[in-house]
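Structure in, sequence out. Go:
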């Protein structure tokens, strides 16, 4: 009976989402409600339930704020760009060519997603693909390639939360996630080559070799960014540098076009520079010294002037003022809140749920029971669970909140390196978000084919198989 109560929050979320009858927020609320009795039967006898809830729910909400702030600020930044008619990407000539297709799918879309998150990369990619004359299910499928770097989406907020939930060094999780991403993106490239043929721009042998070099550069920069810069800006730095270089090489803009390009991309450059400078150790220490908020011992510190959300809002304000739209600040803030309210609430619910599962001992109890039942093969379920969570929730914040503590407990129960299992959770959950019903429905709406989601799934199913297959192989190796 106790084991059933402990596993019920997870089963309820999965079953409700799989039914298609409730949204993510409703499923999360059901899971959170069921977490309370699960925690109650798991807590030590000397710890009362009510004081536990009064202590841990605020702690989880505080941790959630770190993610919510980035989500809302990112959407305000995006709305500010739209208000000033600032193009979210360098202009792309409408004529479809394979080189432009690769740039949209592997560079421009992931760049936008790394900054803002919540599927904005797909919005940008879909718009560019439609301008190139690619439409229908194929355009939707190609737009979803923008989600390939979700571990670093929205300033890597899902990875940040995942590391915080298991008290693991963020850089370790970022580096290992980058290593696991390498073979997955190689597999994605083969899928892109296949879909490009369907789009009528099948790559030549020379273009395939060119792709290999650019992908190698992307993966190298991604690893270097996690190692020497900061996990939060590794995705922005890697894709941003290559977006600029690719545009200069492929489009060969003249002087006037370069000036126009500089104006269009200035907000991104300023944001990236601010984030980079704020991560220099001396600057980071100074920014944290200005103000650091920690409401209770053991809670994650929040330094407003160091946090990525501050710089997103500051640059958004600068964009509006520079564009002569200072009077639109209130409207842009309202639009950002309207767009971000639902994902913010979902984030809050799942992180509070995770906090209760971890601190009550539910995750550890389930992991121990699973290890006893399956023995050495216990970890083989890890990438599958992660993939299911990412597929159903459509967000790596929710996926990590739901399962990261459980994965850490499985690692502890099986004597497997927790850092690798955490990276598998982060990478699998993140990559399968691109196949989630939420993301696929959004892609269908963006290209005007609502109701044809099945055709999109037929095209993108290989992406999920590549990611899950690669990570299962890694899991067996460790």
């Amino acid at each position: 009976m106790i084991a059933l109560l402990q596993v019920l929050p997870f089963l309820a979320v999965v079953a409700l989402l799989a039914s298609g009858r409730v949204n993510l927020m409703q499923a999360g609320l059901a899971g959170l409600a069921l977490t309370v009795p699960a925690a109650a039967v798991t807590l030590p006898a000397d710890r009362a339930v009510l004081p536990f809830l009064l202590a841990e729910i605020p702690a989880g909400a505080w941790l959630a704020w770190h993610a919510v702030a980035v989500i809302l600020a990112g959407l305000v930044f995006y709305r500010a760009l739209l208000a000033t008619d600032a193009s979210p990407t360098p202009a792309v000539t409408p004529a479809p060519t394979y080189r432009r297709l690769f740039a949209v799918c592997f560079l421009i879309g992931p760049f936008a997603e790394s900054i803002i998150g919540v599927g904005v990369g797909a919005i940008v990619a879909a718009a560019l693909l439609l301008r190139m004359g690619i439409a229908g299910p194929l355009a939707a499928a190609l737009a979803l390639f923008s989600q390939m770097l979700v571990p670093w989406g929205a300033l890597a907020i899902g990875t940040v939360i995942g590391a915080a939930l298991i008290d693991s060094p963020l850089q370790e999780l970022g580096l290992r996630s980058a290593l696991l991403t390498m073979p997955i993106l190689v597999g994605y490239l083969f899928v892109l080559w296949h879909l490009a043929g369907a789009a009528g721009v099948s790559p030549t042998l020379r273009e395939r070799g060119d792709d290999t070099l650019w992908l190698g550069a992307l993966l190298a920069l991604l690893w270097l960014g996690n190692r020497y810069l900061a996990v939060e800006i590794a995705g922005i730095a890697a894709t941003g540098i290559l977006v600029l270089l690719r545009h200069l090489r492929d489009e060969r803009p003249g002087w006037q076009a370069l000036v126009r390009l500089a104006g269009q991309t200035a907000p991104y450059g300023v944001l990236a520079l601010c984030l980079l400078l704020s991560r220099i150790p001396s600057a980071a220490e100074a920014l944290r010294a200005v103000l650091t908020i920690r409401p209770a011992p053991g809670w994650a510190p929040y330094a407003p002037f160091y946090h990525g959300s501050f710089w997103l809002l500051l640059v958004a304000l600068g964009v509006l003022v520079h564009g002569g739209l200072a009077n639109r600040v209130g409207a842009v803030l309202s639009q950002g809140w309207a767009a971000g309210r639902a994902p913010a609430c979902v984030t809050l619910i799942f992180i509070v749920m995770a906090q209760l599962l971890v601190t009550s001992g539910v995750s550890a109890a389930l992991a121990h029971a699973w290890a006893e039942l399956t023995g050495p093969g216990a970890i083989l379920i890890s990438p599958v669970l992660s993939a299911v969570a990412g597929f159903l929730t459509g967000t790596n914040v929710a996926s990590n909140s739901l399962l990261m503590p459980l994965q850490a407990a499985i690692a502890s129960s099986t004597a497997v390196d927790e850092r690798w299992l955490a990276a598998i959770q982060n990478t699998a959950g993140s990559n399968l978000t691109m196949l989630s019903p939420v993301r696929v429905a959004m892609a269908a709406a963006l290209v005007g084919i609502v109701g044809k989601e099945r055709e999109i799934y037929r095209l993108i199913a290989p992406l999920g198989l590549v990611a899950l297959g690669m990570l299962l192989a890694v899991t067996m190796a460790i």
